[in-house]
Design brief:
The protein is mostly helical and about 240 residues long. It has a single domain (about 20-210), classed as MFS general substrate transporter like domains (Growth Hormone, Chain: A, Up-down Bundle), CATH 1.20.1250.20. Helix content is about 80%, strand content about 0%. The chain contains eleven helices and no strands. It has helices at about 5-15, 15-35, 40-45, 45-50, 60-85, 85-110, 115-135, 135-145, 150-205, 210-220, 230-240. The chain is elongated and about 60 Å long.
């Protein structure tokens, strides 16, 4: 067979709905979680927490250590709840919780009317919610929803683009904080988390308890939104 035909056949497989639909979903999830602050908070925890000071009673190193402990604990929690709860529930609740907490942090710091340790409690809440879903789930979802034919190539591309995105986010971090302040940074984290949660609520299928074949069959359906899956199934069954 002509090598050009083989190459064309390989590229055409990426245009099939059960390939590009999950690829887009997980790719967007990975990129959006950068703006949600998942890894940026780890890289710049001391700088971010130092910017939260509303009085002289805040020990930045202590709070940074507390956030690290919370992150480790909720990574373990994530391993447990994966057995009991669906992926959609975990991802959406993670975004809602961390988003609301981040918006409250930004507002509290901006108004400077809330006691420092209440803000620190909100920071720990943000880290907890962000960790068990947005920190853990993107890599796991690559193995669950990407079809086996493109999992290696697709996963490598997604991780590469994620690293490139993280590089630019890290390079511009101090400039962004200088422009919008720590409160503005948390507003960005919060709004991004809420938008990502909305995207996942609309687009991410439930994969818990489903085989890889069943997941591929779902993406072969004409629906785009998870909420319209039953309607599309009924139409398809009626036509058949």
């Amino acid at each position: 067979m002509d090598s050009s035909l083989v190459s064309s056949h390989k590229w055409k497989q990426y245009l099939k709905p059960h390939v590009y639909k999950p690829f887009i979903i997980i790719h967007v999830f990975n990129i959006m979680q950068i703006v949600c602050g998942t890894n940026l908070f780890i890289f710049y925890a001391v700088d971010i927490i130092s910017g939260l000071k509303t009085d002289g009673s805040l020990d930045s190193e202590l709070v940074t250590n507390l956030t690290s402990i919370v992150r480790v604990v909720f990574m373990v929690v994530s391993c447990v709840i994966l057995v009991w709860f669906g992926r959609r529930t975990i991802c959406v609740s993670s975004g809602l919780g961390s988003g609301i907490a981040a918006v409250l942090i930004g507002t509290s710091v901006y108004m400077q009317t809330i006691h420092t340790w209440i803000i620190i409690g909100l920071v720990l809440l943000y880290v907890a919610f962000n960790t068990y879903g947005y920190f853990v789930m993107p890599p796991a979802m690559i193995g669950e929803i990407l079809p086996s034919k493109i999992r290696c190539v697709g996963g490598a591309y997604i991780f590469t683009m994620n690293d490139i995105g993280m590089f630019f986010a890290a390079q511009t971090f101090h400039s962004v904080v200088g422009a919008v302040g720590t409160h503005g940074l948390f507003w960005i984290f919060g709004v991004s988390s809420l938008l990502c949660s909305l995207f996942l609520y609309l687009m991410l299928p439930e994969t818990k308890g489903r085989s890889l074949v069943q997941i591929e069959e779902y993406f072969l359906q004409p629906n785009v939104l998870w909420l319209t899956r039953k309607k599309c199934q009924n139409i398809r069954n009626t036509v058949i």
